[in-house]
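Supplementary Data S3. Sequence and C-alpha cells for construct A.
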Amino acid sequence: MIREILSSDVEFAQGMLEASHSDAEILASLAARGLEPAKAAGLLDDLRHGRKPRAQLAFVPGPVIPRAAKGLEPAGASAIRSPEPSRKRLHRKKHRRKGIPWGFILVALIFIGALGYTLIQLQAYLSRESADKIRHELPAPLPK
C-alpha cells in the first residue's frame, strides 16, 4: 500500500473538504484510494492549514522512443537527431498496407487463360464432331 500522493488525490481531498465532509470520512476515502493512513493524514493536515501538499504527477510525459530504436543508436545520436522523423517513420510502418500479391494475380490470370483456351478448343472439337455426325446422317443424294 506504499503509494505516493498524486495530484488527483489532492484534488479529491480538496473537494471533500469543500463539501464539508468530516476528517474521518476523508481519511477513509483516501485509504480506499490506496494511500497509507499516515500520508493521508499529512495531506489532510496540509490542506487544513493552507500549505501546498507535495504531490507527484500521475504520468510524466517524455519523448516517444520506438521499441526497435532502443539501444541501437550511440548515446549522443539521439540528442543530435530530432524526434519528429522517427515518429513519422513509426507511423508509416504502423499503418502501412500490404502490397498487392502480384504472384497470386499472375497465377490466377494464367489459370483463367488456360481454362478459356481449353473451353474454346472443346467447343471447336464438339462443333466439328457434330457437323460430321450430321453429314453422315443425311441420306445419299438421289440418282438422276
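Construct B, processed identically:
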Amino acid sequence: MKKRIIVIVLTCSMAMKVGAQIYSYDRGVQLPTTSLYDTDMMNMQLRALAETAAIRKENYRRYSDMAFEAYNNNNWSNVIYYVNAALNTLYYSGTLYYIRGYAYEQLGNLRAAKKDYKTGKKYNCPEAVQALESLKAKRKHKTKN
C-alpha cells in the first residue's frame, strides 16, 4: 500500500513539473492570456461605472433639494422620505442627517433623532452637534421633573 502511494505521488509530481513548462512554440498548451486583458471590455466597464456615478450624483442632488424644500415647508414626513432617498445614492452629508433628525424630533421620535444627530456630528455638521446637546438637555430636564 505504501509503495502504491509513493508511486502515485511521484507520478503526479513529475506530471506537474512537465506540465508547468509552457514554451512559446507550444501553441496547443499556451494559455489565452489576451482575453484576460481585453482593453475594450475594461473601457466599457469604466464608462458604465462613470455613467452610474453621474446618475447617482444627480439623484443625490435632486433628492437633497427636495428634502430641503420639504424642510423649509415643515413637511416632516417628506423630509424623511427624501433624505432617505438621497442617502441611498451612497453620497452622505451631515446636514442631511441633521434635517432628518430634526424631522424625527418634530414627529416625536427622539431615539431616531438622536441617532441622526450623532451621525451628523460624525460628518462634522455643527447644527447636529448643537441639536444633540439640546436634545440631551431636554431629556435631562424631563427626567428631573
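The two ends are 86 Å apart (CA to CA). Residues 76 and 106 are 7 Å apart (CA to CA).
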